[in-house]
Amino acid sequence: VADTLDKLTVTVFGSTKEGDFAHEFRRKLESWAPKRVHRRVLMIHGHRPLVAAGPGSWGDELIRFCGLDNALQSFEQAYPVLDAEQLVSLAPDFVVDTTFAEGTDTLDPFWQPMVAAGAVGKVLYLSEQSLLRPGPRVFEAVNILLSNFHRLDPEIPASVESGGMNP
């Protein structure tokens, strides 16, 4: 995201300079130091097939910006397709389901048997655009995730100061 902002700023204004949005965004990103809490998070983008956020994906970056661990950190693909056995073997503490099932406090039938069996922890249904699209609202996305994680696990910080980085 920071590289894209730099390129856009150079294209539009000819260069980046101290004080411009791209420079301040990069400064904030480089100084980011979230509290590390070792919880394994699996971010899901589709059920059939079961597509998840692997290393190098936008979801992976958000999970790491929250100070948490991506349950797929040992995978090679950015968006791997998982089967049921892989999902059960991952045993994530949290599943973030971004398949537009949010707004419900009841567990989607897709997750019921896995949660009941203890194969996955808590399931969050979130589909805010800042979670789905890489962009300068990364700090907004992180705060959305943190506030939801904190609601279920008070050891995880509720939010972090974004320093006004969201336009």
Helix and strand sequence: HHEEHEEHEHEHH
The outline comes out as elongated
Uncertain stretches of 5 or more adjacent residues: 162-167
Number of helices in the DSSP assignment: 7
Indicate the percent of residues in helices.
25-40%
Structural class: alpha/beta
Integer average pLDDT: 80
Ends apart, CA distance between termini: 14 Å
Please provide the count of β strands: 6
Describe it:
It is built from seven helices and six strands, in the order ααββαββαβαβαα. The chain has 167 residues and is an alpha/beta fold. Helices cover 37% and strands 13% of the residues. The two termini are 14 Å apart. α1 runs antiparallel to α2 (21-30). Strands 1, 2, 3, 4, 5 and 6 form a six-stranded mixed beta sheet that branches. Residues 162-167 have low confidence and may be disordered. The chain has helices spanning 2-13, 21-30, 58-65, 84-90, 112-116, 129-132, 138-152; strands spanning 40-46, 50-52, 69-70, 81-82, 94-97, 122-125.
Quick overview of this protein structure:
The chain has 167 residues and is α/β, with parallel strands linked by helices. The chain has helices at residues 2-13, 21-30, 58-65, 84-90, 112-116, 129-132, 138-152; strands at 40-46, 50-52, 69-70, 81-82, 94-97, 122-125.
Note the main attributes of this structure.
167 residues, 7 helices, 6-stranded mixed β-sheet, disordered C terminus, 37% helix
